[in-house]
Amino acid sequence: MENQEKKTVLSFIQPTGTPTLGNYLGAFKNWKKMSGDYDCLFAVADLHSITVRPKPEDLRRRSLELYALLLALGLDCEKNTIFIQSMVPEHGQLAWILECYTQFGEASRMTQFKDKSEKHSDNVNVGLFAYPVLMAADILLYQTDYVPIGADQKQHLEITRDIAERFNGIYGNSFKIPEPFIGEVGANIKSLQEPAKKMSKSDANAKAFISILDDDNVIMKKIKSAITDSEAKVRYAEGKDGVNNLMSIYSCCTGKNMQEIEREFDGRGYGDFKNAVGEAVVEELRPLKQEYTRLINDKAYLMECAVAGAEKASRRAGVTLKKVMKKIGFVQAK
Ligand code: TYM
User: Fold this and answer.
1) Which end of the chain, C or N, has fewer beta carbons within 10 A?
2) What average pLDDT does this structure show over 16-37?
3) What is the mean pLDDT of the chain?
4) Catalytic residue among 29, 32, 190, 201
5) d(CA 268, ligand 1 centre) in Å
6) pLDDT digits over 315-328, tens only?
7) Which one, of 30, 40, 29, 23, lies nearest residue 76 by Cα?
8) 189: closest CA among 70, 23, 1?
């Protein structure tokens, strides 16, 4: 199939630290699955990550490391469009326009804004508030059909749809209305230490999350010290958040469903179960880690792909941006 006939898939990730197993199972794994059948755009969302003011050298290094990780996943930079957001100026341009079509009230209702403004109370900047509108611009610029994300991003997709519908209502059809793609298992991987919370790379307790580049023995240790419960029975049920989480991780890595997992560990304790989960995670991540180690040492190749990806993305984004600017009434050269 030619790209024009394929549905468009888009998703980004922030370079705020090494991605976790949550990012991998909630997002990356689906990106990889979709990359063969769809016209995919994947990017490092570096513009989003300056709401917390990283050091310049950290931002640059992490952005390139994350870019290398995207390639290491096996995403093909020729067939797909893989880029770094700030290298495509249209994102910032459309974001400003869409901010003027977003109500203060609806942006205030974003739970991630509320959480993050509590967590970073010393730096509640306007960028943090406008963040979902930049995300809407990312998605709408490319007339995206599907957005593979974890459950925590669902609300941002809803506001994207609302903004697009509002704009289309005023100016006529301008943006395609995107659909979220949220996997059944893995969309909400929890902290290993506080399984009511999502697994997050910014957690102060390093035992709470697995980084996808963690050494094998570190992964095994973290899984072994994961919080479970006193029932000592592997079953998926309400009130067993820790075990449910490990079962979800195991299910994503092995393709087995919950009943199969319950049967496999029937009569066996959590020790055996945790061992199996740890080994499954280690095996799942092994090829990615090997490929990443190779790519991160080839900066020239990474930059070549990043520049080509940004040029491809910018050409496409420019078509939507131009159309939008014309509809609004901006003076254009031709
Ligand atoms: P970010 O960088 O926080 O996370 C990247 C992706 O990983 C998913 N994810 C999880 N999935 C399951 N369990 C978890 N514990 C977990 N933690 C994170 C996220 O849902 C996400 O899909 N705003 C976005 C980045 C972004 C974006 C976009 C995404 C910017 N522009 C356009 C889609 C489309 C974010 O901060 O994701």
Assistant:
1) C
2) 95
3) 96
4) 201
5) 35
6) 999 999 999 999 99
7) 40
8) 23
